[in-house]
Amino acid sequence: MIRGFMILLLCQLVGEIVARILSLPVPGPVVGMLMLWVVLSGRRSAPPWLHETAQGLLRHFPLLFVPAGVGIMVHIALLQREWLPLLMTLITSTLVTMIVTAAIMRFLLRRLR
Prior knowledge:
By secondary structure, the chain is an all-alpha fold. It contains six helices and no strands.
């Protein structure tokens, strides 16, 4: 499990370095995750030790929502003042996500035929 954590942290570090050197508008951990995805796609599967680490992290995934919940409670007054822009942002981003997902799905289905 230690080896899996080391690989994940190394991908995050390399992604952070690449994102900063290239001044990318994407967070370093996202770049690292994409790099890991490319490597694992080439292998067709994750090694068992990395799979075990990922499953361990996913089992405790709900704990990652606790800080967000605390942040909401701390900033409740701000949320009450700015509810309309937040609501509009949520609705717009949801619609855009659904449209892009549908377009990609149509493209992939056409390509599959």
